[in-house]
């Protein structure tokens, strides 16, 4: 979960996947916070991180400057315990063409 940067008001009653989809479809969104009560906050910036019991976060990567070198990353094991609507912490998922880190 990250402080600040909320876009408009939160929306209620959806799933964590709905929250990620709403962010993926909003060009100003770079992060989401989803609470255990079903509240979704779309964020236009990523502030300081803090722990909040029962909340989930989905972060879009900051585009890296282009360079002539390449690098690769790997996701943690898919057997990690699910914590956010079936998504495991530290993994990535692609929704509406956007790659989120959970």
From TrEMBL:
Taxonomic superkingdom: Eukaryota
Bias (Low complexity): 65-77
Pfam families: PAN_1
Region (Disordered): 62-89
Ranges for domain Apple: 16-48
Name by which UniProt lists this protein: Apple domain-containing protein
